[in-house]
Write a structure and sequence with these properties.
This protein is α+β, with helices and mostly antiparallel strands. 30% of the residues lie in helices and 25% in strands. Helix 6 crosses helix 7 (242-249). The N and C termini lie far apart (93 Å).
Length: 554
């Protein structure tokens, strides 16, 4: 191929290199220049331009890209039409992309001007996902280069459709093991399987005992399950541990234990007859991607997973940090005494139109002041109050208290904006935050301290919630390792979904009474709380305050 600047009058049959737009003439890059275009260039006063002219044996960019794409496309891969020297290849089925890595590398080493890019090997794809692209850099491939390229022609990318769709789940339990963990594990696993079109066909919970797990595996195999997943109440520590021993007890074999993927190190792969068995690492209870996903997806696609396959997963195996990891890679210098308190006091209180809710009084004291005083009575510091609606009223109600104010100008956009403002206002060394709602006047300092003390990042306890009769309330304590997720929230939502997404990180703090569940939204609720406290003798001045409040409304 010849490339260079020539006289416009001699350009007929050449390929235009640089786009050109003139009145009445639009000459695109890559367009073949015809006689009419030559005349138009002359009429426009264009004397020369840069072109490429193919020589005998050269293969044009679109033809070359089409030939290559057709040759390297394997099963369930569609080849699209060429344009500007590019051909995209797309998946025709949902599954995993299987790539001939050596073949792709060899192809890309033939000529710098001929390129093939793919998604990572074993990447999950849906119908229509672009899996690869062939791009010819110049306007043609020389004949000699094309000959060498033809020598590499073979399928290099294919889709392995998901084939197995029946999965058994076995969860083991030890004394004190929360049933909620099992429920959350089943929900997470069902969602993980649904993306591959698979489902749970049997599930049961048994004691963390070799013979009970063995019996459950027999039942799983008899149920018609094609894969069995075993979630241990305790992580697998050795090939002789409960779960691998149970696999061998029913005539199965342990094929591999451990993997160079983090999170996911403690994965176990076994087989009972034709049924693969995965001993799940603890991180598999989280919906976030981990090494368990890498092996499970291959099995669902009907691909063999061998011990060497797993041992080869180290490159790229250092995945994103899962917040609940018991031993974080990065240590924080703050201890439990560095936990702060964030009081969210930016809401509009629209359900109490008579007066602003947070500055309405109980026993002569503003609702927000009562909540903040409880925070200050705890051992946690600093106490940050987030203001928004009626910010000046809130500031006046909290006059004289040793707190830090931060104003949220975006409070109308939702609760998440106030939470973000409060978390960002904590001192950099804060080890966590207890997030309090300014309309929950029954929460006391002891509960704030218990929640802060329940945080245990070193053992994976990153969220502490008060619980009574299986019901979760407020406040909630958060380790700083979840601060990035809290700051990333948006809209009028709190952080409840983060609790659901990190079930293994939740520490439940048992509480008595209703303090963690009572908030004040209406005047009627405020009056009811006042009456309750009068009856309980909590405030000798409360009756007079209630009478004054009713008189004010009248």
């Amino acid at each position: 191929m010849k490339f260079g600047r020539i006289a416009a009058a001699e350009a007929e049959g050449a390929v235009n290199v640089h786009g050109l737009r003139l009145p009445g003439l639009a000459l695109k890059k890559g367009a073949v220049i015809d006689r009419r275009t030559v005349e138009a260039l002359g009429a426009a006063g264009i004397e020369n331009l840069v072109v490429a002219r193919l020589e005998p044996g050269d293969v044009g960019e679109n033809e070359a890209a089409t030939l290559i794409a057709a040759a390297i496309a394997g099963n369930d891969v569609q080849v699209e039409r060429a344009f500007t020297g590019r051909v995209n290849l797309r998946a025709e089925a949902s599954g995993l992309l299987v790539v001939d890595r050596a073949g792709v590398d060899a192809f890309n080493h033939i000529d710098e001007a001929v390129t093939l890019a793919t998604l990572p090997a074993f990447h999950p794809v849906d119908v229509g996902t672009m899996v690869a692209t062939v791009k010819i850099i110049p306007f043609a491939v020389p004949a000699r280069a094309m000959e060498r390229i033809r020598d590499t022609f073979r399928p290099m990318v294919r889709v392995a459709p998901y084939r197995l769709d029946r999965v058994a789940v076995i969860c083991t339990k030890l004394p004190g093991f929360a049933e909620k963990v099992v429920s959350a594990t089943l929900r997470t696993t069902a969602a993980r399987l649904s993306s591959a079109g698979a489902r749970i066909v049997s599930e049961e919970s048994v004691r963390h005992d070799e013979m009970e797990v063995a019996s459950a595996l027999r039942r799983a195999s008899a149920s018609g399950a094609q894969i069995a997943l075993v979630f241990g109440a305790s992580a697998i520590a050795d090939r002789a541990d409960v779960i691998p021993a149970a696999i061998e007890a029913v005539g199965g074999r342990v094929e591999h234990f451990g993997m160079p993927v983090d999170p996911g190190n403690l994965l176990l792969l076994g087989r009972i007859g034709s049924m693969p068995v995965l001993g799940a690492p603890g991180c598999a209870r989280s919906p976030k991607e981990n090494g368990f996903d890498w092996v499970l997806r291959r099995l669902l696609a009907g691909l063999d997973v061998t011990s060497p396959d797993i041992m080869s997963m180290g490159v790229g195996g250092l995945l994103m940090e899962i917040p609940s990891r018991p031993q974080p890679r990065e240590k924080t210098s703050a201890g439990k005494d560095g936990v702060g308190v964030v009081v969210l006091a930016a809401g509009r209180g629209t359900r109490m139109p008579q007066s602003y809710k947070l500055t309405a009084t109980i026993g002569g004291e503003a609702l927000v002041r009562r909540v903040v005083r409880a925070a200050l009575a705890s051992r946690q510091r600093p106490v940050v109050v987030v203001t928004g609606h009626e910010a000046e009223q809130v500031r006046q109600a909290l006059s004289g208290l040793d707190i830090k104010f931060v104003h949220n100008p975006d409070f109308a956009e939702g609760l998440s904006t106030s939470l973000k403002a409060g978390i960002m206002a904590l001192q950099p060394e804060a080890a966590g935050a207890v997030v309090m709602l300014a309309d929950m006047p029954k929460v006391g300092a002891p509960l704030v301290d218990r929640l802060a003390e329940a945080l245990a990042p070193e053992t994976g306890g990153l969220i502490a919630v008060p619980v009574a009769d299986g019901r979760r309330g407020n406040p909630v304590a958060w380790s700083r390792r979840l601060f990035p997720e809290l700051i990333a929230l948006s809209g009028d939502i709190g952080a409840r979904h983060l609790i659901a997404e990190n079930p293994e990180a939740v520490v439940e703090v048992p509480v008595e009474g209703d303090a963690a569940f009572v908030d004040v939204d209406t005047r009627e609720q405020l009056e009811a709380l006042e009456i309750h406290e009068i009856a309980a003798g909590a405030d000798v001045d409360a009756r007079a305050a209630l009478d004054a409040m009713k008189a004010e409304d009248a």
